[in-house]
Amino acid sequence: MPFSCFSMHPQKILMYQNHTLMFNKLHDAVMVVVGSTKPKEIPVTLTNPDITTVDCSHDILSGQNGSSEHPMRLNNHTSSEAIGQLSVAICMQNLIKVTERLIQDQQHMKWNLRCLKLQPLSPVPSDIEISRAQTPKAIDVLAKEIGLLTDETEVYGQTKAKVRLSLLERLKDQPGGKYVLVAGITPTPLGEGKSTVTIGLVQALTAHLKTNSFACLRQPSQGPTFGVKGGAAGGGYAQVIPMEEFNLHLTGDIHAITAANNLLAAAIDARILHEGTQSDKALYNRLVPLVHGKRKFSAIQVARLKERCCSVTPGNEESKGHCFQSNSPHLSHASFFTLCFQRLGITKMDPDTLTTDEISRFVRLDIDTSTITWQRVVDTNDRFLRKITVGQAGTEKGFARQTQFDIAVASEIMAILALASGLSDMKERMGKIVVANSKQDQPVTAEDLGTPVFVHAGPFANIAHGSSSVLADKIALKLVGKEGYVVIS
To answer: What does the pLDDT look like over 320-371, one tens digit per residue?
Structure first.
């Protein structure tokens, strides 16, 4: 028995036999299974022209052609009168087959990638001349060619986009590709280093061997870009284009890391100032304010009151001040044992029941300024910021101290971002960053001050792992498929 179906990737499957519900939901649906004929109240123009429609009306199931205006037509039959059990079974079997085909369309397939043509010149022009001579493919076209759905990309201009993590869920059953690491090498006199080799290898795999392949690179820092080293887009005819957009700012992730890092640095100095100039009561009123006559601890404040577990080496119990949260992977190591205690020794969850002593311990981090390890950052090689003095204004009331600026990509936040497996993992790791010790030699963490959260990656290799993000690798492995390659440097 025939049925009408106009194919499209489904996100929802809506089944209706009541025309009132259909009227309310039809416009947002991408697949509709019609059990009755089209009511007069629903105009054809109401439906999405790309909608997938499976017509189970009596005329279709009985082999009649019906109206050509629309697969949902008007007659006097209701679904209960017109469709017998056998007809419904056959129709639903057809629906399953259609849906399976639609789902398969969303799974991995051989890329329909059209590679840009190279026109090598001799002598070889400069990197910037080569980049500007090639017209980049529109990013939305490229995304479609490699199997990304429209709602899986967040476009930045004409040549850049971010990929949403929802892709990992869609392709969770898709086998990953082969993982190739281009290890650290000394660049040749012509500047052929890791990035150039990585991009050249992927160009060969994709354009010449017609194999799905991705290159995963770090975002360049403006420090080296404007220094002796230069950018990190590759070189010659094996480079990322447009070179200027890749080397400068890209989608702004390094600037987001700079802001998050410096927010935490500012919070440290502000907390030292406030604790040095305000009473316990004043601090408590600011940290746990009365809202509609009631105080309530925030989630981060509750975390300070909860149990904390320390990984301690046998015979070195004095190290218990330097510990990990109870879900730390370090706690399972055989050479450690675990000590657990209340971070503040406070088990109360009602802010109004804390004693004067408990309030004092709650509001005061009592940071030892000589132990502060968290520095401000800037994504520029500015040697005169390597050692500075902050707090010299009169409004800072004498709370001056020496500190320094690091380069933005050396921030621990950058390393965490690149290693995190997801947003919740990133948030948890950031909360555990140790920024200083208290005068009682207890670690002070980011979540004691409030956790900065934002999101991609370009960690320096001399202070971190020096590669692109774990999430970028995971996404690339899924997109290339079982026979594809992901090359990182």
So the answer is: 444 443 333 333 333 344 444 446 778 888 999 999 999 999 999 999 999 9
Q: What is the CATH number of domain 253-306+343-455?
A: 3.30.1510.10
User: Which tokens is 61 given?
Assistant: 């199931």
* Paired residues of 403 in beta bridges: 388
Residues in the chain: 489
Q: What is the helix (H) or strand (E) element at residue 244, kind and residue range?
A: helix 243-247
Q: Who contacts 336 (Cβ-Cβ below 8 Å, separation ≥6)?
A: 311, 312, 313, 314, 330
The residue extents of the domains of the chain are 14-106, 127-251+471-488, 253-306+343-455
* Residue 111, both tokens: 């890329």
Contact 445, 433 (CB under 8 A): yes
Evaluate whether 214 touches 479 at the Cβ level (below 8 Å).
yes
CATH 3.40.50.300 holds for 127-251+471-488: yes
The conformation of residue 136, written as its DSSP 8-state character, comes to: P
Q: In terms of Cα–Cα distance, which of 461, 470, 363, 462 is closest to 416? A: 470
For the entire predicted model, the pTM comes to 0.67
Is 13's pLDDT higher than 50?
A: no
Nearest C-alpha neighbor of 442 from the set 344, 317, 316 = 344
C-alpha span between 62 and 91 (Å, rounded): 11
Would the pLDDT of 104 be above 70?
no
Name the residue among 474, 480, 454, 487 with its Cα closest to residue 169: 474
Q: State the Cα–Cα distance between residues 397 and 343, nearest whole angstrom.
A: 31
